[in-house]
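Pipeline run #58 for the internal structure catalog. This entry was flagged by the ingest filter as a single-chain record with no existing model, so it goes straight to prediction. Upstream metadata was stripped on purpose; only the residue string is passed forward. Reviewer on rotation: M.T. Logging verbosity set to normal.
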Amino acid sequence: MKYLPEDDTIVALSSPLGNGAIAVIRLSGSESLAAINPALKRPITAEDARRAIFNEIIDRSNEAVIDQVVTTYFRNPASYTGEDVVEISCHCNPLIIDRIIAQMVNNGARIAEPGEFTFRAFMNGKMDLSQAEAVAGIISARSRQSLTQSLRHLEGRLSERVFKIKDEILSYLSLLEINLDFSEEGIEVMPMEEMRRKIEDTITSICRFLDTYDYGRLLQEGIKLLILGKPNVGKSSLLNAFLEKDRAIVSNIPGTTRDYIEANLELDGLAVQAVDTAGIRDTEDQIEAIGVERALAQMETADVALCIFEGNEPLAADDKVLLELIDNHRETLHVIPVINKIDLGEDNTVTAALAALELPLIKISAKASTGIDDLKQAIKAQVFNDVSIESEEVVVTSARHKLALEKAIGSLENALSAIEIAAGEEILAVDIRLALDSLGEITGETTSEDVLNHIFANFCIGK
């Protein structure tokens, strides 16, 4: 592993960089007290475990006080890492932080690598690998739903789901191995037909879990929402309605938005990057034409496109340009036609033309915020094929977990093939054990060093 030697003591800032009220510096390792005590006015003893103590950090080179601090000692194994841990709460000034860390290094500690505290927690059995990944997920969560799922993973609910599947597999693998032990006596503890049914049930269980990945991925990454339409159709008003504040300039003058405007928002707990684009139309204005070109380029990376039409006037030439875009991209992009300005009346020819597209059609008034909730639900329905997945307590959010589940399914399908061709119980047992190994990759029981190094290298230093 890259984190060697494992018996040394590490130190790092665990709170964000910058000026603020309080910063937290963390030490972990068997020599944590030896690294901090020489710099403390009041040395920490074993009796001080789990007590917050007001103290002073002193620069012993000149006996000057560096800062007044609060120290908290966590004695192993009752700590985050499972080792002796000391947390120093000091004033959040970079000069103070650097001087305190320098004192710890002078006393034998070394600067921690990214994710090394959580790596030590994993190695010391304080959490499994999926829980360790959840720590990073909590820090980077962009929405309430994403944060909720990361917290559930940290609590071990994802691991519980995986262990339940592993227990199912172990229940019939153990009987299969008894079959192997007594094969010469002609004793069959579990008939192959029953073994086949149990394997199929396990595959179904894993597939059901795997089906949550698209939802989980979007929880983690968020969705990109594109707002398209001719000039002055109400795109910027719709963005403001989503944000519930004025983010984009709204004007009756066509072409007010010359370039796309990005805004991050939360839609029913889902992180959304909304992009208000320049009006889609043929134009001789060179700057506006560049804005239109950039708007069209955004379609290549969008998840959902809201195509806005005025409901109170017949379709214009610029509307027909947008209809062509819908026709060209509806196979590769979730498209929702939206009739805006319903507060000003409704032209039946517009409704009929858009209904003929056979796509979800939503009617709104962005100015009056009418129909916005219906539009939000339509967006979610387009992104998530099965909206009922929202009710799942735990979902798969990691591509690494998805790959491990797919490998487990592949191994179990190979086991079914072995049963079909009567390949022998030894081969069947190998395939089933490979499925167990794949599931073990999720919790870290059978994960390679390269994978571990990659996972923890993506953590911030101090976590």
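catalog note: The CA atoms of residues 90 and 424 lie 66 Å apart.
catalog note: The chain has a mean pLDDT of 85.
status: ready for reviewer M.T.
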